[in-house]
Design goal:
Blueprint: H1 2-7, H2 11-29, H3 34-57, H4 60-81, H5 88-91, H6 106-123, H7 132-148, H8 151-173, H9 183-198, H10 200-211, H11 222-243, E1 263-265, E2 268-271, H12 279-309, H13 311-323, H14 336-347
Antiparallel strand pairs: 1-2
Helix pairs in contact: 2-3, 2-12, 3-14, 4-6, 6-7, 6-8, 6-13, 8-13, 11-12, 12-13, 13-14
């Protein structure tokens, strides 16, 4: 029985457990604030392992139904946000320029729209039903990303679609049958590439306008906009990396950990929010070089599993991962980070096959 239970563990679940154990041990021996790092590492490890076990434990019907529920839930959030346009104080609660809908920030709203868009874009090639409604929903999601002003969401979705399309086009050309692609779908992808290439000048102009969205940032390009908007976050990170390249400062700690806003309950820290922009740099800062290597191996395994699942899951996973180049939330098991983890685990797992007992 024990041996059978261990066989149920997917390789990715084992590697994730290993990463979690590494983070916990690092918190105990190297963190500058052991209690906070330990609790955050333990919380993240338990949540993501439970999610992996839950997805892997579903049969194919439960798996598909749960994915449909998540897709519908994201779409409902977007639809319920539209009526708030009648009440600008709600729709534009953070500032007067960017739409946040029923959520508390335009960035969160934009990433919600991007996540929904990634799901529908990934599935549009793999359904026999009418494709008109999914196309309308995709246009709807892209429009909401633009009005939210979320550059992180927009660039993550756009980059995920391009990378996934290039990747699977190369796999198809090499006759690697990871997915059931027919000639029509291949022709559609190739035509899409031609249209993208033809439209590059216009795309660059629109992208530049979108990336330099605010008058407070005087940027002339995507790279300079990124540097300007994220310098306040990655500047202190780089300083810590230079000082502690091997051990790091501790998992889940702010770059200036002495000034963290920590809330306690009966002497136990229950809240210590941290804002960091570029996840790979944050990982290197917090857990050092060896932690970064472990993290990269884990990410590569995630990508490999999503590719094995198909085009749809690859787009979703890449979108979530690319979010973390502007809004590092992959190691947060609370708030919006939970959506990261739910979508990540759904895109990298497979359901159990239903055995026919007849």
């Amino acid at each position: 029985m024990l041996r059978a239970n261990f066989k149920k563990f997917h390789k990715l679940t084992f590697v994730t457990c290993g990463l979690g154990i590494f983070l916990i041990l690092h918190a105990v021996f190297f963190s500058q604030v052991t209690t906070i790092s330990f609790l955050k590492a333990l919380n993240w490890t338990l949540v993501i392992v439970i999610l992996f076990l839950a997805w892997n434990g579903m049969d194919s019907l439960e798996y598909e139904d749960t994915k449909k529920w998540i897709k519908s839930f994201l779409l409902i959030i977007l639809l319920l946000s539209i009526p708030t346009l009648l009440v600008p104080k709600i729709a534009f609660s953070v500032n007067q320029r960017f739409f946040s809908g029923i959520l508390n920030h335009p960035q969160a709203f934009g990433m919600t729209a991007a996540a929904a868009g990634a799901i529908y874009i990934g599935q549009i090639f793999f359904q026999n039903k009418s494709k008109l409604l999914p196309v309308v929903i995709i246009i709807f999601c892209i429009s909401l990303i633009l009005v939210s002003g979320s550059r992180t969401a927009g660039m993550a979705l756009f980059s995920a679609v391009i990378i996934s399309s290039l990747l699977f086009s190369m796999l198809i050309i090499r006759n690697i049958k990871l997915i059931n692609f027919n000639k029509v779908k291949l022709i559609i992808i190739l035509i899409s590439f031609l249209l993208i290439i033809i439209s590059i000048p216009s795309i660059l102009d629109l992208t530049n306008i979108f990336m330099t969205k605010t008058e407070k940032i005087a940027a002339d390009s995507i790279i300079s906009a990124f540097k300007t908007s994220r310098a306040v976050l990655y500047g202190p990170i780089i300083n810590n990396i230079i000082e502690n390249p091997i051990k790091g400062i501790g998992f889940g700690l702010a770059s200036d950990w002495l000034f963290m806003d920590i809330k306690y309950f009966i002497g136990i820290p229950v809240s210590a929010p941290v804002e960091k922009g570029v996840l790979p740099l944050a990982v290197l800062e917090e857990v050092g070089v060896f932690g970064l290597v472990f993290f990269i191996v884990w990410i590569l395994l995630l990508v490999r599993c999503s590719i094995a699942n198909g085009f749809s899951d690859t787009i979703v996973l890449l979108t979530i991962l690319l979010f973390n180049l502007g809004e590092a939330g992959l190691f947060s098991a609370n708030g919006y980070g939970m959506l990261y983890l739910v979508l990540l685990t759904s895109a990298t797992t497979k359901p159990k096959l239903i055995k026919n007992t007849n």
